[in-house]
Design goal:
It comes from Cladophialophora bantiana (strain ATCC 10958 / CBS 173.52 / CDC B-1940 / NIH 8579). The protein is α+β, with helices and mostly antiparallel strands. The protein is built from twelve helices and 14 strands. It starts with 16 loop residues before the first strand and ends in a 6-residue tail after the last strand.
């Protein structure tokens, strides 16, 4: 596998960073013994450091994220590419997606016209993530003016694959190349087939001239290795561009033709940038002190947002006043009314800033960008539009705005929205399980002096900035991750006590 990257002659003002994920699910030390964990750790560290080297040399966030995921697609430890799980019909159908954003108002250098692209029902393309990337970049060639077909964001099926092989020189592989014994055994056990439905039976069904099986497919721990869901990479390059790349084989024994969250924009991945008002520090601290005194700071993030909205809308949105139930103005919503009603009254947006509210007077604008990838039970992510919901909590709250770490925790942390969506099925079916990784970057000229928070695993850690050779320190993004299940494979860089970045792999909330 050979990649060629176009690199700029100079680097930008941001410190490149990234975070990778392998998958989330019912992981425990019982089904992840030390030797198996070591294999995962070795792979993740290698892909993390190789990709960081690319970013440090000037490679774009999009190229770096796709490169990292392509490496994961070639590793049978992970449920994507060559390690993909089988459908109920005994076939393999892969999915992948990419999305970009930028803290730079001019936007990302590539892919910014379409912003997002996803591919599904992929069967014979070695790297589905590179196919998704080509779909994304298709609109850039003519500035988005090349016609309807160049602006499609979601494509699937054989004709798409043939376009990738023919027009973009992507690598084609036979069905057999994607088969691994451990995934076949997961498939067989899930269908409760007897031993006659074995991997050897599958291999024997091919002719003698087919490509040989994957030689490094170690089946010694077939019973212990759980299917590890979607893989993903979120990268930030030196110019403040963000990119998310996500790839998966889907759910074991899914229905053939099923479309999951990975190729669904907003459900399994998202990237977004916006401009927001920044509150000055004394006013912000006064507001936070008042919130803590009133008990608001102890409420969940969603309830905090509703309480903030109450400042504009009155008690009708206050969750602490249940004695005032919601009453529709016209009996039925306008969409269900037989005719328009003159009694319908528009209401002000809860996000409108009122001049009389001195505690929220902005003193400047700032640019903010986020990018995220999710993994876990895709059907649950779909029902919540989970990853876009996280971004919406960040963008549509405040001031002060909700941090990405808090928003991720609200949706996919323990007892978060994702878990609660499973209802009484939680812990019985795998529904609602999952995790999200991401990067948040804020570009604000007058940043407060002092230590900056380095965010990882849903918790903030006070550290000092890394030592930079220049007198002007590089601006930093913050990596985020959280999950509600047994574990989430993830790899990122963390500052040690001396301010030096070190690669780190985590599976559980605590160290392995």
């Amino acid at each position: 596998m050979t990649f060629t990257f176009t690199q700029p002659s100079t680097l930008g003002p941001f410190k490149p960073t990234l975070i990778l994920h392998g998958g989330a699910g019912s992981l425990s030390r019982a089904n992840l013994p030390p030797d198996l964990y070591a294999r995962y750790r070795t792979s993740l560290i290698r892909y993390l450091t190789v990709t960081r080297d690319l970013l440090n040399s000037g490679t774009s966030a999009l190229d770096a994220a796709c490169h990292a995921v392509a490496l994961l697609e070639d590793d049978p430890l992970f449920n994507c590419g060559r390690g993909s799980v089988f459908t109920e019909s005994g076939t393999i159908e892969m999915e992948a997606s990419v999305m970009v954003s930028s803290v730079d108002p001019a936007g990302p250098p590539a892919g910014g016209i379409k912003r997002a692209a996803a591919v599904s029902l992929i069967k014979n393309t070695r790297h589905p993530i590179l196919l998704a990337k080509e779909v994304l970049l298709e609109a850039d060639k003519d500035g988005g003016l090349g016609g309807t077909s160049t602006m499609h964001c979601q494509l699937s099926g054989r004709e798409l694959e043939e376009w990738g092989w023919r027009e973009r020189a992507l690598e084609k592989k036979p069905d057999r190349w994607f088969w691994t014994k451990k995934r076949w055994e997961e498939h067989r056990r899930g269908l409760h087939h007897d031993d006659t439905y074995s991997f050897n039976n599958l291999v024997a069904s091919l002719d003698a001239y087919s490509e040989s099986p994957f030689e490094d497919d170690d089946d010694s721990e077939v019973d212990e290795i759980p299917s590890q869901g979607t893989v993903g990479a979120v990268c930030m390059d030196s110019w403040g561009n963000l990119a998310v790349a996500t790839s998966t084989g889907g759910l074991t024994n899914k229905k053939a033709g099923r479309i999951g969250d990975t190729p669904t924009i907003g459900a399994g991945f998202w990237a977004e940038a916006w401009e927001e008002e920044s509150v000055n520090v004394p006013q912000l601290r006064q507001r936070e002190s008042s919130r803590r005194t009133s008990g608001l700071g102890k409420l969940p993030v969603l309830d905090q947002i509703l309480s903030q909205a109450n400042e504009s809308l009155g008690s009708c949105l206050n969750p602490s006043q249940p004695e005032h139930p919601y009453q529709p103005l016209n009996g039925a919503p306008p969409a269900y009314s037989p005719s328009a009603s003159a009694s319908y009254q528009p209401y002000p947006s809860p996000l409108v800033r009122h001049p009389s509210s001195s505690s929220t007077q902005p003193i400047r604008k700032r640019r903010r960008a986020v990018a995220m990838s999710g993994t876990g039970n895709g059907d649950s992510f779909l029902r919540l539009n989970a990853v876009r919901t996280v971004a919406a909590l960040c963008r549509l709250s405040g001031p002060p705005s909700v941090s990405l770490a808090d928003a991720v925790r609200t949706v996919t942390g323990p007892n978060g929205e994702l878990q609660r969506s499973a209802g009484d099925r939680w812990g019985r079916t795998g529904e609602g399980q999952g995790g999200i990784i991401g990067i948040e970057v804020i570009d604000e000229e007058q940043e407060e002096e002092g230590p900056q928070p380095w965010v990882a695993d849903g918790f903030k850690k006070q550290t000092t900035e890394g030592k930079m050779p220049s007198s002007k320190k590089k601006k930093r993004g913050h990596v985020v991750s959280d999950f509600n299940c047994g574990g989430l494979f993830r790899a990122y860089y963390e500052l040690d006590e001396s301010g030096v970045e070190m690669p780190k792999v985590m599976v559980f909330h605590e160290e392995y």
